């Protein structure tokens, strides 16, 4: 059975995007960027909601070809392009870069994917992750909490029908002041 990991940068007040989908506050330091790149390398499949997919696919397919790309960005872009991905959406009809489109029941498909043998899966996008959270499918949460308050926007966590008990398995502070915490779901 595969492990499903939900991890993103978030503000201290719990948002992954400020009002207007502004993520300018969440630009990672070199060390944090390397952490996320290493996470990508250790992942077998990434699951995206439409909005995050559109953000990622607007930059990373050619991120390694930009004249100002750092070695870490070049490495991440290549990993991202090669990584198998699934995008869950009923409003787009085409995806590229080693990606398949899922238009049906997201929870049913994530449940099916989790039951397969294989390496870890990452899930990204608040709406998709929220559905997986409510269904009890998330095994691990990775929060990279930035020292900024944005006052509103898209929350990292969704409203739940019942408590989810977690065990803290890692804390780490990056030089930029971001605090990384990892929790596993207590089953």
From TrEMBL:
Domain of life the protein comes from: Bacteria
Chain ranges of the Bacterial bifunctional deaminase-reductase C-terminal domain: 2-180
Protein name: Dihydrofolate reductase family protein
Pfam families recorded: RibD_C
